[in-house]
Amino acid sequence: MKKKNNAPKSEKRKKTRKNHEMGMVTYLFTGLFALLIGYLVYFDGVLREDVINNPYNSRQETFAEQVIRGKILSNDGTVLAETLVGEDGEEIRSYPFGDMFAHAVGYASHGRTGVEALGNFSLLTSNAFLPERITKEIKEEKNLGDNLITTLDVDLQRAAYAALGSQRGAIVAIEPSTGKILCMVSKPDFDPNQIGEKWETWNGLDSADSVLYNRVTQGLYAPGSVFKVVTLLDDLRENPQAEDTTFHCSGSLTQGNYTISCYRRSAHGTQSLQKAFAHSCNTAFAQIGLELDPTAFGQTCKSLLFGVDLPVDLPYSRSSFALTGQASEDEKMMTAIGQGQTMVSPMHMALITASIANKGVLMEPYLIDHIESYTGDQVRAYRPKAYGSLMTDVEAGKLTEYMRQVVESGTAKTLNNLPVTVAGKTGSAEYSSDKTKSHAWFIGFSMEEEKDLAVCVLVEGAGSGGEYAVPIARRLFEVYYS
User: CA neighbours within 13 Å on the CB side: how many for 393?
Assistant: First the structure.
């Protein structure tokens, strides 16, 4: 019997396998190419600006060799920063308002901060008319960079700056419905026009004491009684009968070996929860602290962004809430009145305040409204963006009601005769073993539908929030609604 010749089938099988392998390789390289193209599109549309803005990116120096840095303007077009070019071609960055916008606008040499850092890519990019750009490149002349129009309000910034005076502290004002940062003042401050000649002196200070330190976003402080907004919210969440509770205040409350006192040992007598909040009664809120579940309290604080990242583009410090289930009674009392280990930045308190004013929804804060070419053609606009709900509409409404009582009959009643209705909370936060020293706080917002304003004022070591922070807030409301 003759044997069959299987050679053709074997060769066919080999060819099929080879074609399959070639197909797999082709698909693999096609897929990798598609991924590469997709990444390049994503990089150009999303990541490019952030990568180029990175302070370690040497390409920035290349841009600076080709483009004269653009201007930074206020929301009404007032120049806040510009590059002056001398007859010899030397470029000098000028800040017409000097110290006033120091931490908000920032500086552009020896590193970059503030808007100078946030918008660095755009300031070194020219969207001038194409033929003009080409002509200048041929002549080896620099093009003019784009201008940044910020959300900053000159009148409000000037008022905040003047009201804080020579005191150390921080002031920030935000439009709750949009997230626009309208003013930002931190003192001590510096003149960015002198950044070159005084850099070694300023940069050599300890960070928390440096004039370069932005207390609005980087400063961490005991919140004192402004934290009672948080304690109140958790009490309303945990205890359905919270609003029916009454308290008796004799000026102090002793639990074990620890005593909590009201400001200047004021005795508030028998009062409702609303009155205790309006009078900023420490003994009432210390009692509330003893009854709250530390785990639930911690969850409420987390929902208000304690211990988590803030939606803020500027360098900032995280706030902290350290109460645990093993906390002692004195720790629970201290935490409930905003003392103990709880620390918060003025910007964070402003965000909480803005979310209350905006029915519980926090809008992401931002400083750049839009970008224009030097001829005024709009290149890009930034739109308000919701971060999310920190609380429900009902909870925000309830907190607003309580904060309104603080102004109507409580510790901020000097705000009563303003041309707008205001809700708020004062605070006096002890920060050392010397019980006579305290930071003065105020958080609050106007109750206007079309032109709202949320403010946070902190005056370091001044004393009572009602005496020192409220008058500053009052000035801001007066100027904004004048």
Answer: 0
